[in-house]
Amino acid sequence: MAHVYQQRALTVNLNERVHTVTLSCEEYERLLHRPAAPSATPSSLGTFIASHGKSWMIDSGATSHLTGNRYSFLTFSPSPKFPPVRLVDGSYSPISGSGTVRPTDYLTLTNVLFAPKFPVNLLSVNQLTKTHNCSVTFYPSYCVIQDLQTRRTIGTGHERGGLYFLDTTPPVDARALSASVSPLQWHSRLGHPSFLHYRKFYLLIRLA
């Protein structure tokens, strides 16, 4: 069964608009203190960004793409007009510009905001579906990004630690799969755990 997660949100005001980042405080802290390498200190944002700079979190509530990795931009336009982002730990990160990022060989993102101190890369489902005319369907352990006109799969993502991250491997064409393979077979072929494994997980979410 497809599912879109609802999370408590942090809000960021940019140009009198509200851009939403759907990271709960607990999720942000988990990312902030996640060891990036054996030699990394838990609270080091710089080390986290250096180690995880290529991973893009697929966020169903964010209104704009956002990254803290300056080196990921193919094109970049500096701009001082954006107010700073207030992070959960109380610190601030300026939005110093925007540009184009290509997180995979098969997907290019435009108008990506650059926040130097932001510890993760956020792919906004809202912005992606509008600019690419696509749909994003979430399943218990993966998600599929599909072109609405051609029905081709243009990207996939997988769940890690309760969050969804964009895959860098070539996407599988959902049309070819759906013609001959059931969703359960597809789920198994991709190497995911049994759907039964997530039954208790969903019950816990519903009861929370």
Please, could you describe this protein's structure?
By secondary structure, the chain is α+β, with helices and mostly antiparallel strands. The chain has one domain (10-207). 23% of the residues lie in helices and 33% in strands. The protein is built from six helices and 14 strands. The protein has helices at 25-32, 45-52, 125-132, 174-180, 183-189, 199-207, and strands at residues 10-14, 17-21, 56-59, 66-67, 73-78, 85-86, 92-93, 97-104, 107-114, 121-124, 134-138, 142-147, 153-160, 163-166. The chain has a four-stranded mixed beta sheet, with no helix packed on it. It has a four-stranded antiparallel beta sheet with strand order 11-12-13-14, covered by helices on one side. The longest helix has 9 residues, at 199-207. The relative contact order is 0.14.
Q: Tell me what portion of residues adopts beta-strand conformation.
A: 25-35%
Uncertain stretches: 3-20, 34-52, 175-181, 194-208
Number of strands: 14
**Cross-sheet strand order for the largest sheet:** 4-9-8-5
Question: How many H/I helical runs?
Answer: 6
The coarse overall form would be globular
Distance between the termini: 20 Å
Q: Mind telling me the C-alpha Rg?
A: 17 Å
Class inferred from helices and paired strands: alpha+beta
For the record, the count of structural domains works out to 1
Mean pLDDT: 70
> Which percent bin holds the helix content?
10-25%
Largest sheet: 4 strands, mixed
> Helix and strand succession?
EEHHEEEEEEEEHEEEEHHH
